[in-house]
Amino acid sequence: MSNPGFTCITCRVAFNNADLQRFHYKSDWHRYNLKRKVVEMPAVTAEDFKQRVLAQQAQNAEAEKDTATFCKLCSKHFSTWNSYSNHLQSKKHKEAEMKSKKKLETDVARENAKNREKGLLEDETEEDENKAKEAGATAQSPSAGRRSKPQEAEEDEDEWEDVEEEALPVTRCLSA
Description:
InterPro entries: Matrin/U1-like-C_Znf_C2H2 (IPR003604), Znf622/Rei1/Reh1 (IPR040025), Znf_C2H2_jaz (IPR022755), Znf_C2H2_sf (IPR036236), Znf_C2H2_type (IPR013087). By secondary structure, the chain is mostly helical. Among the domains are: 1-45, no CATH class; 68-119. Helix content is 66%, strand content 7%. The strands form two sheets. The protein has a two-stranded antiparallel sheet. The protein has a two-stranded antiparallel ribbon with strand order 3-4. The radius of gyration is 36 Å and the shape is rod-shaped.
């Protein structure tokens, strides 16, 4: 077996030509082994180096998930929690928050105005007032807690049918 003329003593690898040896000297694997040699540690194989690189990349990705934050309002990415918290206290972020709130308020007001024009919002407020009056009257009457189950079911069905016929505006709370 002939002895190749080009070798890397640090990584303990032989090469067939000088170009491959030069390419190897520029590689991260060779640099890693040089640093290990300086601190008198043994060299690692190419396969072991690849595994270490992959493990380090996975660890970095996991650490980035924990520390990286994103401000949706400003569309900015922050690599550390500290820089993100500083951003939240900044004047620009607070101005962006105010602009966002004002825009939301104007959108809601615009939607209410559209609904008033269509007559939807006024009808709902009258219905809500009537329901509140009925609820107050039933709470004060002595027979309020004595409704029979079939009667409750019929009333619920009537209310459900009314809801199916009406379209709910965007501004109406569903829990009401």
